[in-house]
Amino acid sequence: MSTGRDRKARKARSLLAALVAAVAATLLAALGLPAISGASAATLFADDFEDGDAAGWTRSGGSWSVVADGSRAYRQSGTSADARVIAGSSWTGQSVQARVRPIAFNGSGRHVAVLARAQSTSAYYFLGIGETGAVVLGRRTGGAPVTLASAPAGIVTGTWHTLRLEAFGTTLRGFLDGAEVVSATDATYASGRAGRAGLYASASFDDVLVSDVGGPTEPPVTPTVTPPPSGTCTSPGSPAGFASVDAWGQSGTTGGAGGPTVEVDTASELISAIGRSSPLTVCVRGVITVPAGMYDVASDKTIVGVGSASGISGGGLNIGLPVDDAVTAPPANAVHNVIVRNLTFRGASDDSINVQMFSHHVWLDHNDLCCGYDGLIDIKRGSSYVTVSWNHVHEHTKTMLLGHDDSNGAQDVGRLKVTYHHNWFDRTPQRNPRVRFGEPVHVYNNYYFYNTDVGVACQANAGCLVEGNSFERVEEPVSNSYAGPSGRCVARDNVFVDSGTPDCGGTVQEARSYYASPPDAPASVKAIVPAGAGVGKIGT
User: Fold this and answer.
1) 289: β partners
2) DSSP letter string, 87-149
3) Which are the contacts of 244, defined by CB distance < 8 A and separation ≥ 6?
4) Alpha-carbon dihedral sign for residues 171, 135, 85, 96
5) Which of 169, 131, 183, 186 is nearest to 153 (CA)?
6) Do 483 and 455 meet the contact criterion of CB atoms below 8 Å apart?
7) pLDDT at 33 over 50
8) Annotated active-site positions, please?
9) Which of 75, 118, 164, 190 has the fewest C-beta atoms lying within 10 Å of its C-beta?
10) What confidence score (pLDDT) does residue 260 get?
11) Where are the domains of the chain?
12) Strands, E, within 347-474: which ranges?
């Protein structure tokens, strides 16, 4: 975990950069000169409140405090106030995103919201969740809020959702969990700060991110109910990378091969099947909503989705034994030989997929992951011989961890051998992945698009080999000095488009001493990966 000092330093750098950019733009305009576009997308402001304070936020009304709500979050408590907080500079084009958990509303016409182009705590645009569970886009000019657009969403109190409000030119666009649901045109405010509000409502807010680049340009979507997917349950192929290596008594990764196949379409069937003690292939048909929590996967399992519209929502998969800090060597009963493929993961209450406690030979392939509470794919506590391949991860902040803490060397040193290849890191600001201790960690042929904080962060004496990737609009593609103790990294044969440059140093073990995996040509990655990553593409 990075320290409060690290986070505050990064926040200060973001604010300083934004101030410098604003001053420069003003001077250029005054001189009649054209503005020069930056080399990469900029993070204007970010706060995850893990340092325990809310420095930089200006409050008006309500009772705001940093609380523990899973991770630390900034909460507006009580429903008897018109509560608002704002932060940042007078930005023009801005994308304001935060995770929001509505708690309670006091009457009708109430909302909890993210704010953009705030002139003050009583003049701004807002994108909120209303007391009816709808998403509302509006404007406030001193008095009562004015609704510009709204859409039903069925949101219930107590659940986390990601709101993103974009204000570019006179166009306002509102996103819920990565999908555009409302839009409007309004010319009242041309610039302003970012913020959050609880209009006679209480809520927790976390992972605030303000950037200068908008999201995709697809038109607003209306949620539809789709029939159960057709097709059969298949899982051809075998992994490349560390999941293919013979080690720790396991010959490659074969999952449930040799065992029977079952099909599940309810939460109880899924939870029962993945926990069985014998080899099994579990076919998931349709999206199964499970109660909040993490559900244990036993050894020798293949969990695969049917078609392109099957997956898990509301909870996540735990591949590993219960946490025991006293265990410093792989136990004989460590979970091993698990395959998870062709599944969508949405709205996980914790991690979408968690691999822990010396689990080994795990292949996570061709999944689509978005909009969970914590990590999308976290690998930690001595786990090893894992391949993460051909996944589409998008619109999520805490994307992937490899190694959970700077002080966990007793379990992690000499382990955490993981391959990341042909994944599409799509608008995921950080942890793509964030690495501690593992060596070698092989990151090759991935496509990074619009990562506004950092791509690969290699820390705590980890050794990362980053080769043949394509980075587009990535602020800091590779770093071994992101936060906390430094690591070692070698970056070679990568493509950088409108991106920063690697911050790398040291030597790293060669992955080729474990397995042969010649990378695709870096120039082809941008076309290959989006075409092949995600669900419905097994066999690509």
Assistant:
1) 313
2) EEEEESSEEEEEEEEEEEE-SSS-EEEEEEEEEETTEEEEEEEETTS-EEEEEEESSS-EEEE
3) 238, 252, 253, 387, 515
4) negative
5) 131
6) no
7) no
8) 431
9) 190
10) 95
11) 4-28+40-211, 306-532
12) 353-355, 360-365, 368-370, 377-379, 384-389, 392-394, 400-402, 418-421, 424-426, 434-436, 441-444, 447-451, 456-459, 463-467, 470-474
Cα 24 to Cα 31, 218, 411: the distances in Å are: 11, 32, 49
| pLDDT tens column, 150-208 | 998 889 999 889 899 999 998 999 989 877 889 988 999 999 999 999 999 999 999 89
Pairing of strands 456-459, 478-479: parallel
> What's the start-to-end Cα distance of the chain, in Å?
36
| CB contact set of 279 (below 8 Å; sequence gap of 6+) | 255, 256, 257, 258, 259, 300, 301
What is the rounded CA–CA span in Å between residue 259 and residue 249?
Answer: 19
Strand 294-296 to 123-130 pairing: unpaired
Whole-angstrom distance, CA of residue 360 vs CA of residue 135: 42
Q: Global pTM?
A: 0.72
For the sheet with 111-120, list strands across it: 58-60, 82-91, 192-199, 111-120, 123-130, 135-141, 146-151
Lookup: tokens for 215 = 């999201």
DSSP 23-60: HHHHHHHHHTPPP---SS--EEEEE--TTS--TT-EEE
Q: Where does 169-286 show beta strands of DSSP type E?
A: 171-176, 179-185, 192-199, 201-211, 261-264, 280-284
Cis preceding linkage at 433, omega within 30: yes
Residue whose token pair is 């199964």: 288
pLDDT score of 178: 78
250 neighbors 242 (Cβ within 8 angstroms): no
The CATH number of domain 4-28+40-211 is 3.40.630.30: no
> What band does 40 get if pLDDT is binned at 50, 70 and 90?
very low
Q: What's the DSSP call for residue 17?
A: H
How high is the pLDDT of residue 52?
87
Structure tokens at 228: 């159960």
Q: Give the separation between CA 526 and CA 508, rounded to whole angstroms.
A: 26
Please report which confidence band the pLDDT of residue 438 belongs to, taking 50, 70 and 90 as the band edges: very high
Length of the chain: 540
Residue 359 amino acid letter: S
User: With contact defined as beta carbons under 8 Å apart, do 474 and 497 qualify?
Assistant: no
Strand partners, 173: 166, 183
Res. 227: pLDDT tops 70: no
Instruction: Please give the distance of CA 320 from its chain centroid, rounded to a whole number.
Output: 21
CATH superfamily, with its number, for domain 306-532: Single-stranded right-handed beta-helix, Pectin lyase-like (2.160.20.10)
Strands (DSSP E) found in 212-290: 261-264, 280-284, 287-289
- Alpha carbon distance 491, 458 (integer Å): 11
Do domains 4-28+40-211 and 306-532 share one topology? The answer is no
Mean pLDDT, range 257-265, rounded to an integer: 95
Give CA–CA dist 27/191, Å, rounded. 17
> Got the DSSP string for 495-540?
EEES----B--S----GGGT---PPPPGGGHHHHHHHHSSTT-TT-
Q: What is the mean pLDDT of residues 133-143?
A: 92
pLDDT of residue 228: 64
